Amino acid sequence: MTPIWKPLQEPFVKVNLDAAFKATLHHSYSRFVIRNSRGLVMSSRTVLNKFVSDPFTTEAIACLQALNLSREIGFSHVQIEGDSQIMIVKINQVLPNYSEIGTSIKEIKIKASFFQHISFYHVDRQANMVAHMIAKERILLPEDRFWMEELPATVKAFLARDLSGLIPWI
């Protein structure tokens, strides 16, 4: 069975994040989607990041940006999901991280401490397709984008797939 997106109980929101890395330009593209307990989109965003050195840094930057947006909107109970297992494992480790993304991991942990409850989980790409497809599409967009309670039209089919198991009338 293909892993699918699963909702959380209120008051939690789920933040799915993904990133794309363009090595030739040293650019990365962050993408995250915040959804409520019914699976509906609360907010989504794409960001172009310049002067990025590697894919691991790309994922860490996306996580930091997702935490910032979640806090700005006012969410206090957040679950972060991403398909970068290396990053999620490093965030969840108790010991200090001395890897190339250690500084970013430390900053993520500091920002995470501002939430009443927060958790970080690795998910299969199939359960993260909405964020993944927007990250992929982001490469085609010339500027950052921010949406409240909506998504780009090209990604709505993936949202409908996620919601089909949650809402009987879809």
Which structural traits does this protein have?
170 residues, RNaseH_sf, RNase_H-like_EbsB-rel, Nucleotidyltransferase, domain 5, RNase_H-like_dom_plant, alpha/beta, RNase H type-1 domain-containing protein
Write up what this structure looks like.
With 170 residues, the protein is α/β, with parallel strands linked by helices. It has one domain: Nucleotidyltransferase, domain 5, CATH 3.30.420. The chain is 34% helix and 26% strand. The protein is built from five helices and six strands, in the order βββαβααβαβα. It has a six-stranded mixed β-sheet with strand order 5-4-1-2-3-6, with helices on both faces. β2 and β3 form a beta hairpin. α1 (55-73) runs parallel beside α3 (102-112). The protein is globular.
Could you state the CATH homologous superfamily?
Answer: Ribonuclease H-like superfamily/Ribonuclease H
Structural domain tally: 1
Helix content: 25-40%
Distance, first to last CA: 20 Å
Stated plainly, the CATH topology is called Nucleotidyltransferase, domain 5
Provide the succession of SSEs: EEEHEHHEHEH
Q: How many DSSP-defined strands?
A: 6
Q: What's the CATH first level? A: Alpha Beta
Q: What is the general shape?
A: globular
Can you list the strand order of the major beta sheet?
A: 5-4-1-2-3-6
